[in-house]
Design brief:
With 422 residues, the chain is an alpha/beta fold. The protein has helices at residues 36-45, 67-80, 93-104, 124-137, 140-150, 153-158, 160-171, 175-187, 214-223, 239-242, 244-255, 300-311, 313-322, 328-343, 350-364, 367-379, 384-397, 400-418, and strands at 11-14, 21-25, 47-51, 86-91, 109-115, 201-206, 227-232, 284-285. It has 18 helices and 8 strands. Strands 1-3-2-4-5-6-7-8 form an 8-stranded mixed sheet, sandwiched between helices. The radius of gyration is 22 Å and the shape is globular. The chain starts with 10 loop residues before the first strand and ends with a helix.
């Protein structure tokens, strides 16, 4: 006998019956336990509902074809519990579900937090290739690569129990549901619709997130009218696991005052291994740099911050170490003007700025800078395939010889940057 398809999701509730509702959404390959280290504090003020994606954490293996379908199943789950309005925080694909809720069902949301999220997750080809890998080899390749994607190197080395816990979450996920979620992310693109999000939104990102990093976060903030950015230092993609105190503090401050209906709790013991020496950096809402005018904020500090985020600490530290009295003023000029005045503007996102910069450098024949900005483009979220397409395009408008030289530079950089680690 065939099993009918469930229209709801597996969930867990914590907190007092008369508290306002807060819903927490997981990342791809994780379970609701990725939020374990937030629950003690959040459940003091909120009635917290966490849910699992289909086929994750023992949930029924009934794939959802789109982010919209996942959002619909979540709403069906909440409807069944009598929950009408709620605050929502989602990580990665959980953030995509939050964006879908804000666009398609704005009357249900009181407030929104997007953690390690993006209006578009890489390219469709990237996620479809991931699906091919899982169809061919199962989830083991995804499980082995998860620690590198989810945590900083220092945390992974210091917390092997948590790393192994994370790997096991991936290994126990249903492959068909994982592939379906990849297909859903491949089709997800909310860039043109961000301006329609009308609820107060916190965009929270780890400073070292290489999956959906600060560049993607700034794209969200630039597009969502009532939004602000919070950068969590010392955290990668699973910031709620890696820096729980900082993430919890930001969520508590953002969701303060949200009032929802209530429901009885279903307690559950925490399963996540405890960190042996948890780090608790202070994460603050990112300041807004005012436009240039008399008495404006000095662009040097935001400039050096953006320069490090785009080019990397090692590159900037190398320039600083080599600087002398002859070059100091020039480097300060570059930091203030190029990075503090131009790259810090929010009119376009950093991916787009990288596309423009690569094209201009090819046209000018600036090979050394092209190598630097190819690395920057990868950090800003461009894929090797996209960089290849940019260089092919420049062959038409900048000349074949210029593009040929650019391919040689970019190929070497991409090989270095994408080579497997030791």
């Amino acid at each position: 006998m065939s099993e009918s398809k469930s229209e709801t999701l597996k969930y867990q509730v914590d907190g007092h019956e008369d508290a306002p509702w807060l819903v927490l959404g997981p990342s791809l390959g994780t379970t609701w336990h990725m939020w374990d280290r937030q629950i003690e504090d959040l459940s003091r003020e909120w009635r917290v509902l966490r849910y699992d994606l289909p086929g994750h954490g023992g949930a029924p293996a009934q794939p959802a074809a789109s982010v919209g379908e996942l959002a619909a199943r979540l709403l069906a789950t909440l409807d069944g519990l009598g929950i009408q309005r709620f605050g929502y925080a989602g990580c990665s694909i959980g953030g995509a579900i939050g964006i879908e809720l804000a666009l398609a069902h704005p009357h249900r949301l009181a407030s929104l937090a997007l953690v390690a999220a993006s209006p578009r997750f890489g390219t469709a080809d990237e996620f479809r290739r991931r699906g091919v890998v899982v169809r061919t080899n199962g989830l083991e390749p995804m499980a082995r690569s998860a620690p590198e994607s989810w945590f900083t190197q220092g945390f992974a080395a210091a917390q092997p129990a948590i790393v192994e816990w994370a790997v096991q979450m991936v290994r126990t996920t249903d492959p068909g549901c994982y592939i379906a979620a990849c297909e859903a992310l491949a089709a997800f693109d909310a860039r043109a619709e961000l301006g329609r999000i009308g609820v107060p939104t916190l965009v929270l990102v780890g400073s070292d997130d290489q999956v959906t990093g600060p560049a993607e976060a700034r794209t969200l903030v630039a597009g969502i009218p009532d939004s602000r950015l919070a950068l969590v230092p010392g955290a990668s993609h699973l910031a709620p696991v890696e820096q729980p105190a900082a993430v919890t503090d930001l969520l508590v401050r953002h969701f303060a005052g949200v009032a929802q209906d209530t429901l009885s709790a279903i307690p559950v013991p925490p399963l996540m291994p405890q960190a042996s020496a948890p780090a608790t950096p202070v994460a603050e809402f990112a300041p807004v740099v005012e436009p240039t005018h008399p008495g404006r904020v000095d662009p040097y500090e935001p400039g050096i911050k953006v320069r490090r985020e785009v080019l990397g600490d090692a590159h900037v530290d190398g320039i600083t170490a080599r600087a002398d009295g002859f070059a100091d003023d020039f480097q300060e000029l570059v930091t203030r003007y190029a990075w503090g005045e131009v790259w810090s503007r929010e009119g376009i996102d950093r991916r787009t700025r990288s596309v423009i910069t690569l094209t201009a450098l090819v046209a000018g024949g600036h090979r050394d800078e092209l190598a630097t900005h190819t690395r920057a483009a990868l950090r800003n979220g461009l894929t090797p395939q996209e960089i290849k397409e940019i260089l092919i395009h420049t062959a038409v408008y900048c000349g074949v010889p210029a593009a040929n030289s650019a391919f040689a530079v970019a190929r070497e950089v991409i090989q270095q940057e994408t080579a497997p680690g030791p």
